[in-house]
Queue: 2 jobs
Job 1
Amino acid sequence: MNIILFGPPGAGKGTQAKYLVKKINGFQISTGDILRDEIKKDTDIGKKIINDMNDGKFVSDEIVNNLISKIIFDPLKKNRLIFDGYPRSLSQATNLNLLLEKSDQKIDLVFFLNVNKEIIIERIEKRKIEEKRSDDDLDTIVKRYDTYMKTTKPVLDFYSKNINFHEIDGSLKIDQITNKIHDFINV
Ligand code: AMP
C-alpha cells in the first residue's frame, strides 16, 4: 500500500506518517527531512538549497524529483511508501505518477489534513521551542503556509477527483486523526 499525506506545514503529517510506518510496516518519505539532511551534511545539493529553505521557498522540482526517484525504485520500499510533504506541485505529482507507473506501483490512499493558518502558527511556534528547527521563525512560518496553500492547490485539485482521496479535519486531536486514517486503511 502506498499513501500520500497532504497538509500545510504543522498539520501533523509527520506524526501520522510515523503511525503509518508502524501500521503498514512502511517507509516515511519526508522531502523536508531529506532536504534538511543534505544541508546538515553540507553536500552539493545542500549548498544549492539552503537559501530557499531558510526563506520558506520551495526547492526546485528537479532536485526534489531526483531525490525521490531513488527511493521509489528501491525494491525494499516497494508498495510501502508513505509520502509526507511530496508531491507539492503539479510537476512533482506528474513525475510521481510516471515513476510509480515505471516501477509497477500506484497510490492507494491520499489524505489531506486541512488546518487553518491560526492553528498552524500556534503549533509551529510550539515546535520551534521543542525541536529548535532553524527554519521556523514566525515570518517563515507564514510564508511557508501561504506558499504551500498556493502551490499545492492544483495538486489537491488533481488528487481530490479520485475516490481514494480523503479530507480530514487537521485541527482534531492526534488520536482522532489517527483513528480516521485507521478506518480507511482497514476497509
Ligand atoms: P517540511 O518539513 O515538509 O515542512 O519542508 C520544509 C521545507 O523544505 C519547505 O519549506 C521547502 O523549502 C522544502 N521542501 C520540502 N518538501 C518539498 C517539496 N516536495 N518540494 C519543494 N520543496 C520542498
Job 2
Amino acid sequence: MFEKILIANRGEIALRVQRACREMGIKTVAVHSTADSEAMHVRLADEAVCIGPPPGRDSYLNKAAVISAAIITNAEAIHPGYGFLSENAGFADMVKDHGLTFIGPSAEHIRIMGDKVQAKITAKQAGIPVVPGSDGAVPDENAAVEIADGIGYPVLIKASAGGGGRGMKVAQTRDDVRESFKVASGEAKAAFGNGEVYMEKYLAHPRHIEIQVLGDQHGNVVHLGERDCSLQRKHQKIFEECPSPALNPKQRDEIGKVVTTALKKLGYYNAGTVEFLYENGKFFFIEMNTRLQVEHPITEMITGLDLVREQIRIAAGMELGFTQKDVEFQGCAMECRINAENPRTFAPSPGTITGYHAPGGRRVRVDSAMYAGSKIPPYYDSLISKLIVQGSTRNECIMRMRRALHEYVIDGIQTTIPLHQAVLDQQAIMDGAYDIHWLEDFVAQWVKDSPAKG
Ligand code: MV4
C-alpha cells in the first residue's frame, strides 16, 4: 500500500480524499494556489505545496507543477479528484512516466472515453445499448442529411470532443440539419480544436440515469447500482438521488449486468460511471466518466462502501474485497449541491463566509471544506458543500433533507439552499415524476412567482 499520496485538487473533494487516506494510515500532500493558502484542505493535510497563482490553468491544471510537488515530497501516487486533471489522459501518462501511480483508470481508457465518438463505438461493441444514430463521425453535410433521414426527426448533432452538453444542436428538419452541421462542426473546431461531430435520435423526455462501477486490475468488475441525475440546469447537476424512482430491482440488475459484462471485456479498472438516457423503459448509453464523481456519496450511503478507499486499493494493485453478490442497497439517499450562487439567477456569489453551522444528526453527511471565515475565491467552480442524507424510504429521505436544509446556516454569501427547499416542496419531486427538463421549467416558474427573497 502507498505510504503517501498527493491530492491534486481543492475544496471538498480534496478533503474527501484526505479523509480516506487518513483512515487507511496514508500520509497526504495537499497542493494549492496562492488563493487557497488558508483553505481547509491545506490546513488538514500532512504537507502542502503551493503550485502557482489563482487561475486553475496556472495551478491545479499545471501538470508539471503537480508532478514536481509529488516528487519533492516523495509521494508515490496522485489522486486527481474530479474536474481539473482527472480525465486528462496526457496527465495520467505523465504521472506513470515519472514512476508515480495515477489513482484512476488507464490513460488508454481515459483517452477512449474522452472522445465521444470512440466511446460510443466502444460501448456498442461491448454490448451496451446506445442511442440510435450515425455509426461514428459524420463526414459532411450531405451525409448528415442522409443519416438524419434514416434516423427520423428531430435529431441531435453532438461534438466528438464535447460531452456534458457542450457543442450540441437539435435539428427538426433537413434544412436545420445542414445549418446545424455547419455551425456545430465550426463551433467544435473553435472550442476543442476538433470539428468532428456525430448524430443521434433526439430523445424528448428522458431521465439521466448513471451506473457506478468499480473494477480491479485482476479482471473483476462490480456495479453499485444507479443514480438519478435528471435534475440539472444548463448541464450542471444540482440534486441527485438513488435508487432512481423510475427503476425496479429487475431493471437495475439487468442494466448492471450489461455494464459489468462490457467493462470486463474492455479490461476497465478503478471507478467509473456509465451514463444513460432512460426513456419508456429503455436505456441508451451517452457517455462514460472515467473518474470519481461529485455525487458518489449517495452511492456510498446506500452501499456502505468507501469509493475513494476502493480507488486507492485498486490503484495499489489489490483485488476487490467483495463480489457483486456482496453489494446490497440499503434504503434511499439524496444529495443537494450547495453552490455559492444567487439561487434564482445562478450568478456566482464569491466572498467570505461570516457565519457557518452545518447540519448533523442521524444519517446526515456534509462534504464541505467551508468554515466560518472561509474565503470563496472567484476563480473556481461554485460548489461549496454537498448535503447528503439517507432514509429507509424515499419519503423519510425527503423529510430528512428538508430538516437538514433548515439547519444549515451559511452567512455572508448567497447559496442555492432556498432553491433546494423550493424544489423539495414540489409534488412532482415527492412523486419522483421528473425528467431532464423538469428543473429548468420549475426555476422559470419559481422566479416568476417569487422574484425576490423567500
Ligand atoms: C441527448 C439528449 C436527447 N437525446 N441525446 C446533454 C449532456 C450530454 N451528456 C448529453 N445530453 C443530452 N443528450 C439524445 N440523443 C438530451 C441531452 C440533455 C440532457 C441529458 C442529461 C441531463 C440533462 C440534459 C439536459 C438537456 C439535454
